[in-house]
TrEMBL record:
Keyword Signal: yes
Name of the protein described by the UniProt record: Uncharacterized protein
Residue windows of the TPR repeats: 60-93
Signal peptide: 1-21
Length: 395
């Protein structure tokens, strides 16, 4: 017992000196970080501040300064990670919470921004000027599809959508969709013996609703419902589709897994999706989206893979390149918003989307899409080109 006491007495000076050195190191780190912060030397602050993260000089004030430096230099993902540390230690830090809101907003993560806004006081909420009616975004898009097939007329697509904040953790997205295309299949001859094609119009009217519940700053649960009313060749079909999924928001990646199921024009459908979004720069200046799907259509399984790459081209201008591989017959895309159930299945598609920020609130987008399709009546392949113009208004 005396031996143990002796060891403790001998160790006390070492413990004291170690604690003193750690305290001095912390004071030095904070002092240098404060100087760099006040001087606006953001890159040097990030470099300096990240060095002592493994030792005892790791404290909220330092994380706050580094988070601000990341935010100012445009690495919003890294900034969010730093402010997370601050809020875990100091939940009442309203400035860190406000910066979390802005970073999510800059990443177009409206649900994440709304979650952070729910913790702000009334005065701060008034300063960020949220819509008093809970409106988040409104958008419209219209497109034309031009098939290289003399038995298919041009197709026309329209969609109007609105996103609303039901509560700080709930966001509801709704869309009303219309699609029309005349399909030429039957022949007849007039009294002079001339041959003509007789067409039937494939018409669809659709309603889509997607609800997102933000569990915390990392996890969200999503659910969607899609109703489709289809008329073709004198037959009417009513289709109902649902989706359940979960998303995880990380420092440089976002992950999502979901399952779709339902009945689509008389066919039982199940689709399993896994998606990964990657932001290597922590912002929208460069990003990738990878999505793998297994589609089970009345027992027939297909594997479908989508890859998109986007980057900032010029000031206020972004471009995104995307391609989808696999049999997309009745394929569901974008959380079930887009349903590829045209009369002829798509075997491959690729396209370019140009985004232009017209103003603080308005985002214009122009999309070109190439599709390789198969004529189900004649078993031949043909090409289809589509152009879609849309605009999104952010409240």
């Amino acid at each position: 017992m005396e031996y143990r006491k002796l060891i403790i007495l001998l160790a006390l000076p070492f413990i004291f000196l170690t604690a003193k050195a750690q305290e001095n190191n912390r004071i030095l780190t904070d002092s240098i970080a404060e100087e760099l912060y006040n001087a606006g030397d953001w890159k040097q602050l990030i470099t300096w501040g990240n060095k002592p993260m493994a030792d005892t000089s790791d404290f909220p004030a330092l994380h706050f300064k580094i988070g601000y430096a990341y935010m100012v230099t445009g690495n919003y993902k890294a900034a969010i990670n730093q402010f997370d540390f601050v809020l875990n230690k100091e939940p009442a830090n309203s400035t860190a919470r406000l910066y979390q809101y802005y970073c999510n907003n800059y990443l177009n993560n409206n649900a994440g921004a709304s979650y952070q806004a729910g913790y702000l006081d009334k005065e701060t909420l008034h300063s960020i000027k949220l819509s008093p009616f809970g409106l988040v975004t409104a958008d419209v898009e219209s497109g034309i599809k031009l098939p290289n097939n003399n038995e298919r007329d041009n197709g026309f697509f329209e969609r109007a959508g609105i996103s609303t904040r039901l509560w700080w953790r709930f966001q509801l997205d709704q869309s009303y969709i219309s699609f029309d295309q005349k399909i030429f299949r039957e022949f007849y001859r007039d009294r002079y013996g001339d041959k003509f094609l007789f067409g039937k119009t494939d018409k669809q009217k659709e309603y889509f609703a997607r609800l997102q519940f933000t569990i915390n700053d990392k996890l969200s649960a999503i659910g969607s419902y899609h109703y489709i009313y289809t008329t073709f060749r004198g037959k009417t079909d009513y289709s109902n589709l649902g989706l359940l999924g979960i998303t995880y928001t990380g420092q440089y990646v976002n992950l999502q897994g979901d399952i779709n199921w339902g009945n689509l024009i008389g066919k039982a459908l199940k689709q399993y999706d896994a998606k990964l979004d990657f932001y290597p720069l922590g912002n929208l200046n460069f990003y990738t989206t990878s999505r793998a799907s297994v589609l089970d259509l009345s027992g027939v399984k297909s594997f479908i893979y989508n890859q998109a790459i986007g980057f900032k081209l010029l000031n206020n201008t972004w471009i995104e390149t995307a391609a989808t591989f696999g049999n997309e017959d009745d394929y569901l895309d974008n959380d079930g918003l887009y349903v590829y159930n045209s009369i002829d299945p798509t075997k491959f598609k690729a396209g370019e989307t140009l985004f232009y920020q017209v103003s603080k609130h308005a985002l214009l987008r122009l999309n070109y899409l190439y599709e390789k399709k198969t004529d189900i009546y004649r078993d031949i392949n043909y090409n289809q080109n589509s152009v879609t113009l849309g605009i999104t208004w952010k409240f």
